[in-house]
Amino acid sequence: MPPALYFFLRDRFLAQVAQFFVKVASSFEAPEKTSFGDIDLIVAEPKMTPFYIETLAEALNAERTIVSKPSCYLAIPYPGLEGNYVQVDVHICEAENFAWEVFHQSHGDMWNLLGSSIRPFGLTANDTGLHLRIPEIEQLDRKRSMVFLTADPDSVLEFLHLDKATFSQPFGTVTAMFEFACTNRLFRSEAYVKGNLKANDRKRMAQRDLYRRFVDDFVPKMPTKVGEEDGTSISNREEVFEEALERFGKRFEYESRVREWRKEREELARKQGARQWRKEEAEADEAYANAWIGSLKKAQKRLIRGEMN
């Protein structure tokens, strides 16, 4: 739909949904969009208990509703186009995670760009917050390797040296958005060289136009070794790891996680060793039995030959 209609409907639906939820928002869109698809709303804290999606759907004049918790998808008649619909996606989140989800979805592909920068340094941002991955655990169990750091947007922007005021308003141009992403202190241009891209990044190249433009057009035109000449930059993953643990007060959780992991691995190794020992014992017993049976058969054959002679 055209931008004017999109923003008109978005603001109208926000006002309507605010009758049912304490917290209501729509994240900033990516810049320079000339057409829009779905209208995405993020909400938290229902004003009525219990809350029924059907009540919200009726208030928004939705003709069709799909519920896939924690979200619902509403088909609302498209103004002036009979038989066509506007899709409104309402994501219901926990109140304590509301600010983060709005932040994480802001500016379209912004966090796809930032994610490729912070990943080599052991950081992961997902829909629950910023996490630090423990190298010792990551290769065998990525999910358990992640230590939650924070879901506070301001703390994350500060940690990455990104300007809060700039992030807190829409970008006027795609170039401005790209330039902002590069001010992240963990930005390294080599992370966006096609040969260095991970599988998920290659998938984004095929599916996300802004990400492709950043990798194909913007980064190659930048000065070499961007990010490494800044005196405040960090040179390796170990430095980021230590700073993150201290900054967010997660050292105890990290050490506890590692102790638990090592204990489990030791127990697993012990069990595997015991199984191997039992296997070897069984094989030795079987070999002995087979040898004894073989000897017995030979003796029987000799005896039979002797009797025949």
Helix content: 40-55%
Distance between the termini: 105 Å
Order of helices and strands: HEEHEEEHHEEHHEHHHHHHH
- Report the biggest beta sheet as strand number plus sense, adding barrel if it closes: 5 strands, mixed
Protein model, in words:
It is elongated, with a radius of gyration of 30 Å. The chain is built from 13 helices and eight strands. The mean pLDDT is 88. The protein is of the alpha+beta class and 309 residues long. A five-stranded mixed beta sheet has the order 1-2-5-4-3, sandwiched between helices. Helices cover 50% and strands 15% of the residues. It has helices spanning 3-17, 53-59, 98-104, 110-118, 135-138, 142-145, 153-159, 164-167, 174-181, 199-207, 209-218, 237-247, 251-308; strands at residues 21-25, 39-46, 64-68, 71-77, 85-92, 123-126, 129-133, 146-150. A hairpin with a 2-residue loop joins β3 (64-68) and β4 (71-77). The chain starts with a helix and ends with a helix.
